[in-house]
Write a sequence for this structure.
């Protein structure tokens, strides 16, 4: 389970981490701290999968089995990257003026 940087307990179910993006922060399940990811860590996490996606698009014939397989592998690598190589951090709560 992804650990919360604030309370060190499990922050959310794995599938929920897949829904996280720099535009979609999520509260920690254990302590309600708002958690998010930076653009940098998000893009790094999905970079390998995205590269395979792009390579597949250019290398294989449209609609071929190879292309479907390449997209599948690229997609899975994007998910794995998000799960295991995307650090989550506390979202800075803006002070009320
Ligand atoms: Zn927490």
């Amino acid at each position: 389970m992804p650990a919360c940087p604030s309370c060190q307990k499990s922050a959310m179910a794995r599938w929920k981490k897949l829904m996280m993006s720099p535009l979609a922060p999520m509260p920690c399940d254990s302590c309600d701290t708002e958690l998010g990811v930076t653009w940098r860590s998000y893009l790094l996490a999905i970079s390998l999968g995205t590269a395979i996606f792009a390579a597949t698009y250019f290398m294989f014939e449209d609609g071929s089995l190879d292309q479907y397989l390449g997209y599948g592998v690229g997609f899975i690598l994007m998910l794995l990257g998000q799960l295991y190589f995307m650090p989550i951090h506390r979202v800075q709560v803006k002070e009320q003026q």
Observations:
- The chain is about 50% helix and 5% strand.
- The chain has a mean pLDDT of 93.
